Amino acid sequence: xxxxxxxxxxxxxxxxxxxxxxxxVAINLRPALTSVSPVLKNIAAGLSLSPAAQGxxxxxxxxxxxxxxxxxxxxxxxxxxxxxxxxxxxxxxxxLLARPLTGMVGLFVFTALAGACIGIMNVLLPGxxxxxxxxxxxxxxxxxxxxxxxxxxxxxGATEPLRQAFGDQWQPSLVFWLVPAxxxxxxxxxxxxxxxxxxxxxxxxxxxxxxxxxxQVTLFMGLQSSxxxxxxxxxxxxxxDRGVAPVTAGLALSVxxxxxxxxxxxxxxxxxxxxDQRAVLVGVVLLTLLGLAGCLYAxxxxxxxxxxxxxxxxxxxxxxxxxxxxxxxPDGDTAAELSGMAQGVGYVLAAFGPLLVGLLHDWAxxxxxxxxxxxxxxxxxxxxxxxxxxxxxxRPHEAT
Length: 400
Hints:
Keywords: Membrane, Transmembrane, Transmembrane helix
Strand content: under 5%
CATH architecture: Up-down Bundle
Pfam family, one: MFS_1
Transmembrane segments: 52-72, 84-101, 107-125, 137-158, 170-192, 213-235, 247-267, 279-299, 305-326, 338-357, 369-388
Radius of gyration: 21 Å
InterPro entries: CynX-like (IPR004747), MFS (IPR011701), MFS_Cyanate_Porter (IPR052524), MFS_dom (IPR020846), MFS_trans_sf (IPR036259)
Domain Major facilitator superfamily (MFS) profile: 210-400
Number of strands: 0
Distance between the termini: 58 Å
Number of domains: 1
Shape: globular
Helix content: over 70%
């Protein structure tokens, strides 16, 4: 009996260590993105970047999120998901070290590479959750989402104070974010001993790409992500140009991301109990647009109201985009295929948001016209939500 108890305690300890490692990895899935915008004006001044070039800088990692996503299953089948995650954690740490220290070319190259690292881990972690915690998928996914938002929020809020602490130098404030990646890699090492014989087999053909419902889900993922990465990349700059202090502007992005946690947990619970999800999808996008409009046009004295509304809207939008991947799929294999399509195509689509914002700002010399673009993106998201939110299932071998 004592040996049985010892074995159970050992298994429980392994599960706890696996969960801690998973959450630490999740914390690293956004700082490479959200740490740039609070010091973007300093980077632009130091490297003489035009607004268009700044738009490219904020767009590159999002493009690479999508382009790298299809590589994740292939690498996972070859060396296993645990080793793939570990390899890309190490590579992420290296890119975060090199990115601010290698001049303008290195800044762009390593920013793109950081996005690719995150894109691959993005795809693998939900599968590890489903495999290792099959009876607690909802709980662990919620914790995973909270950890992801926490990492994004910390980087958004702390990077500008770090710049000031490092003698007004933006380079070390960006290098700092390799520390969480190194810690996560060290805690992840025990997972490298895990042997899983089951490997996800690729489905023959690309039938989902001929399915209208799959495209509606993918487009919702991409359009709401376009708004999200525009906020990650440009919100502090927009607020600074409106007269908000740099530290406050970075803190505003951080607070917005923190409030995403509220709806990231509650919205899927609400949406999952409804007959279909059209109303909740349209509602969270409307909240997002309302928050963006307030940040762009309302008096800055009311900034924190709009920041909270923006966070609640974007937290609900992102969590519902992930939830649709499960709700619209009839089985696990289809859910995995739909996830790959939605993340691969969706994040590439999402990258056009930050890029167009930079180009429009460069052309117009201000932010007023940007609100029209964001409104059109939000309108597109609501239109496809009316299709993606229907109580239907994607059938991989049916073109609709």
